[in-house]
TrEMBL record:
InterPro entries: NAD(P)-bd_dom_sf. The keyword Isomerase applies. It comes from Salix dunnii. The keyword NAD applies. Keywords: Isomerase, NAD. Belongs to the NAD(P)-dependent epimerase/dehydratase family. This is NAD-dependent epimerase/dehydratase domain-containing protein. SUPFAM superfamilies: NAD(P)-binding Rossmann-fold domains. One of its GO terms (molecular function) is isomerase activity.
Amino acid sequence: MFILGMGFFGQFLAQSLKKEGWVVTGTCTSKTKKKQLEEKGFHVYLLDANQPELSTLNAMKYYTHLLVTIPPVVCVGDPMLQHGELLRSTLLDGNLQWLCYLSSTGVYGHCGGAWVDEDYPTNPTSELAKLRLDAEEGWLNLGQGLGFSTQVFRLGGIYGPGRSAVDTIIKQEPPSEGQKMRKSRQYTARVHVEDICQALKASIYTPSSRGIYNIVDDDPAPREEVFTYAEDLIKKKWPGRTKCSSNSASLTKKNESRGDKRVSNMRMKRELGVRLLHPSYRSGLLSIIDQMENPFHCSP
């Protein structure tokens, strides 16, 4: 497996595959990150996607599977697809059999609370979401044109150990830009890293002619509800430590236009045979907090 972009999910997948005997290589963008990843036992290339070195591109063709996690850039688009012809010619005679591009459910836009599946018309509203949709088409065309199995995974918000509502509250982290955008939504798609991982493995072992899959859980609950549940878990596990946490109410706002979309995962279940480990944020957050040691260093 060659992973273009060893971020949160890329590292999780790499660790999982290594345990199963896979040879895994990835890329990152800084020497500091490269050192950190190498200390964790990963083989990593430095990659500037705007000016990729030929040696890195050539290395990709010796792998059988390619995962692309690098997001698009405003005013640039997908940084790797800028070099589409170079990519195509490099990979043409390689060993690749399978390619997956990680996209986002944001490509559907605002749907007034409707259930949306992969056949629902896309209507991205932000510039990044529009570029995501362009990138989906670009990677599908590249992979299918070279004759190997190619998938696009439209992911909900990714969470897992170290990156969840529980972690945000405990660390008192300010909300990210993505979290700010999700504050007012009535419905929010999300998925645990373990379930992305099993969906991805299923797509490897269950060849499919389909190109696009929604990878989300069964419960498109509002962010406010998720944070309230996370706070309850923290209170139960560490009584008296709640003043160290941020208040979920401060992280959410009422908004007249809260209706958004509920994303269906039926194709993923039906065609890839995925049985979710965490069908709801409740299971996912509970598994995360169960693995945590006491993270508080302040007095009750």
